[in-house]
Prior knowledge:
This protein is α+β, with helices and mostly antiparallel strands. The protein contains three helices and two strands. The protein has one domain.
Amino acid sequence: MNKEQLKNIHDNDRLAIRKEIIEQACGTEPPIPDVPYIHVVFCKGHNGWMPFTGYGCDLDTQTTVEFINCINDATDVLNGKEGKK
């Protein structure tokens, strides 16, 4: 879809396209069968960027917390918040 088509798209169609993209990116199937995976997708909404994460593996608590902190830091960077790397 080109920029002119995007300007003329109806809001409901835009939401449907966004939902489809998120569902495809955060699908429940791993990209390689029987291989652990983590999907992280950043989508921009009215309130800035938001992460959507899907886990297909088990992580210990400390690693999960560190990973979530990294995702939150990346979201802050996308949203232009100062003090984040």
